[in-house]
Design brief:
The complex is a heterodimer of chains A (335) and B (291).
Chain A (H helix, E strand, L loop, with lengths): L1 H28 L4 E7 L2 H17 L3 E7 L1 H11 L4 E6 L4 H10 L2 E6 L6 E7 H6 L17 E2 L2 E8 L6 H12 L6 E4 L4 H13 L6 E5 L2 H5 L2 E3 L7 H7 L17 E6 H6 L1 H9 L4 H13 L4 H11 L1 H4 L5 H10 L1
Parallel strand pairs in A: 1-2, 7-8
Antiparallel strand pairs in A: 3-11, 4-11, 5-9, 5-10, 6-7
Chain B lengths: L10 H26 L1 H16 L2 H16 L2 H16 L3 H31 L1 H16 L2 H12 L3 H26 L2 H9 L4 H30 L1 H5 L6 H10 L3 H37 L1
Helix pairs in contact in B: 2-5, 3-4, 3-13, 4-13, 5-6, 5-8, 5-10, 5-12, 6-8, 7-8, 8-10, 9-10, 10-13, 12-13
Classes of the chains: A alpha+beta (335), B mainly alpha (291).
Chain lengths: 335, 291
């Protein structure tokens, strides 16, 4: 019984506290309602969600809440129910058809590109391989230098770690493999899943073994294991379109399309909270820095929230440009 | 946390120490381990090539001979042949053979390790009480918990897939060997001892033959569990039918997933028929002898 009373008292206190916070909050935020931010399953998106949530809550005084999600379910929910209201890292190509419907319906808009250089996909090698073998600079250099990447299981061919089955990149990688004529000296090794690919990179880099394979950035993996992307020719839209087709008859070598990764925002938020929308339109992180931040998180097995704190504390130069000075001061004070 | 559970020890520091230790193991032992398992990998690859490069009718004939040897009946033989032809008709022959190679090696190793362990368990209660919790862990620990570390240790591909399959599939054969031997009528064992059988003779001429139907049931379950790991194993690059299932799900190509899934079902039926008809024959023989 005593516990019950104490709980009630606590609840009452909480309500009083909230009531006091509310009026001050509404001034800046523009809306007294809850602003929901999608927290995706992977580290970079979860971290960015926490960053956005903290700036909204501490800087603008919004009632900002995180909701768990993943690209396709979140995009679907944003399209149909206009909730969650913000998705800080939405890979548009992953949810292309839903994105097209959103544009048609007009209830979700792209506030900006979250990554300064966009999403980078391609074939990567660890930096120590790049240093030991300066002759390998581009994907065209692989064919002649296959010996470096030969594996004990099949010493006659180099091993190129391919993209997990069913991902869009699998078809592109396979076609690019064909276009480069790599079949003569390389085998495309199936990695099975994103987790296995990550574990493979971890293994090869821990043992300072050679590695060449598909990955994408910005990710903790790129930052943590210092992967270098092999150079590719200029992006050619037509050639790339053929690469994305399983039945591409004559694949030609071209650069990988830059991934469009948007800060996706529900249109209502722009009317209700123009200041917050302004901040979201400026929210952008440089690829290399965010990879480093994520690698820090992976090294310290930090939660996304801790990584977000780390980012806000140590990378002020980046995020203070997104918000007015007084908001930045409030966020800093809350850290 | 809100529950207020006292923080007795620093889990995070422990976790970090564990991760560092594991990374150290990977750095020092990763390469040697891969080398150690290279012959096994060659064996699986060899079997896979043999099954894939032999003409299909040769493989079907070989399966039929094995089925006949196990069942001594025409019905299961015809059944197995029909299933194999169906696999070919579905257009998943090569992938199916890759899965069969991995599964056969995994099952073989599971049986070779599992039956001796089961026998040891049946003979010593202390061994049994030590083994049971380990078997429980093997059967309940989520596969991904050890799958990904296996990839880091052995490199991606068939070896970690094989080891994960064994960890997952070996418990039934161990448990049922132990159970089968323990269930043999103590009076029969007593009688054999009265006739002067040594412990060794008791085991091999009385207990194991009488436990054979139960042991066969264990082997059958192990085979099925090894087969059910096919999809999971392909998530770490083992290839085979599971890979096509994965491709199907990821690309939302229902047809591809369904066909490869059907292929797995057909394989399961084939191996189940062979093992079951063998088990039935062993049991029938026992009855005949006891009468």
């Amino acid at each position: 019984m005593r516990q019950k009373i104490r709980l009630t008292a606590l609840a009452a206190l909480a309500i009083v506290g909230m009531a006091q916070a509310q009026p001050a909050a509404a001034q800046d935020c523009g809306t007294a309602g809850t602003v929901t931010v999608a927290e995706m399953t992977w580290l970079s998106a979860a971290t960015l969600a926490h960053v956005a949530q903290k700036i909204m809550a501490d800087g603008y005084g919004c009632d900002a809440q995180l909701v768990p999600g993943d690209t396709v379910p979140t995009a679907t929910s944003m399209l149909t129910k206009s909730a969650p209201m913000v998705a800080p890292e939405l890979w548009i190509s992953t949810a292309q058809s839903i994105w097209d419907q959103m544009q048609e319906k007009g209830n979700v808009y792209k506030a900006g590109d979250i990554f300064a250089s966009g999403g980078e996909e391609g074939w990567w090698i660890p930096s120590y391989v790049a240093e030991q073998h300066p002759e390998i600079k581009t994907i065209e250099d692989l064919k002649a230098n296959w010996q470096i990447f030969a594996d004990a299981e099949n010493p006659d061919k180099g091993r190129l770690y391919g993209c997990p089955p069913g991902w869009g990149c699998e078809i592109i990688s396979n076609n690019l493999f064909k276009a480069l004529g790599l079949g003569e000296t390389f085998e495309m090794f199936p990695t099975g899943s994103g987790e296995a690919l990550k574990a493979t990179i971890a293994r090869q880099v821990t043992g300072q073994q050679p590695f060449v394979g598909y990955y994408w950035g910005p990710t903790d993996v790129i930052g943590k294991y210092n992967l270098v992307r092999l150079g590719m020719p200029e992006f050619d839209a037509e050639a790339f379109k053929c690469l994305t087709d399983t039945n591409c008859a004559d694949p030609r070598v071209t650069g990988w399309a830059v991934g469009e990764v948007a800060v996706a925002v529900v249109s209502d938020l722009k009317d209700q909270a123009p200041d917050v929308a302004e901040f979201l339109s400026k929210m952008q992180v440089p690829n290399a820095e965010i990879s480093t931040v994520l690698a820090w998180g992976d090294d310290n097995s930090a939660t996304p929230e801790e990584v977000a704190d780390h980012f806000l504390k140590n990378y002020e130069a980046i995020w203070t440009q997104w918000v007015p000075e007084d908001v930045a001061a409030k966020v800093k004070a809350a850290l | 946390m809100t529950s207020g559970f006292p923080e007795v020890w620093d889990t995070r520091a422990f976790g970090r120490a564990l991760d560092t230790a594991f990374n150290g193991i990977v750095a020092t032992w990763g390469e040697p381990l891969e080398q150690i398992f290279l012959p096994l990998l060659r064996a699986i690859n060899g079997l896979e090539k043999l099954l894939q490069l032999s003409p299909w009718w040769a493989v079907v004939t070989a399966f039929c001979i094995v089925t006949w040897a196990a069942a001594r009946q025409w019905r299961p033989v015809a059944m197995v042949a029909a299933m194999l032809v169906a696999l070919g008709l579905l257009g998943v022959w090569d992938a199916a053979m890759a899965s069969v190679a991995l599964m056969l090696v995994a099952t073989l190793l599971s049986v070779m390790l599992g039956i001796p362990l089961g026998i040891l368990m049946s003979r010593s209660d202390r061994m049994r009480s030590g083994m049971l919790p380990i078997l429980d862990i093997m059967q309940t620990m989520p596969i991904f918990v050890y799958l990904i570390p296996f990839v880091m240790l052995f490199g991606p591909g068939k070896i970690p897939a094989l080891l994960a399959t064994i960890v997952f599939a070996i418990p039934p054969v161990i448990r049922l060997t132990d159970l089968g031997i323990r269930q043999v009528d103590p009076e029969v064992v007593e009688a054999s001892r009265a006739f002067g059988a040594s412990r060794h003779q008791q085991l091999w001429t009385v207990q194991v033959p009488l436990a054979m139907p139960t042991i066969m049931a264990g082997i059958n379950q192990t085979t099925m569990m090894a087969l059910s790991m096919v999809v999971i194993a392909s998530m770490i690059g083992a290839g085979g039918l599971g890979y096509q299932v994965l491709q199907g799900i990821q690309r939302l190509e229902v047809s591809r997933g369904l066909i490869a899934g059907l292929g797995i079902v057909l394989l399961a039926i084939i191996f189940d028929r062979i093992a079951q008809s063998y088990g039935r024959r062993v049991q029938a023989n026992l009855h005949r002898e006891s009468e």
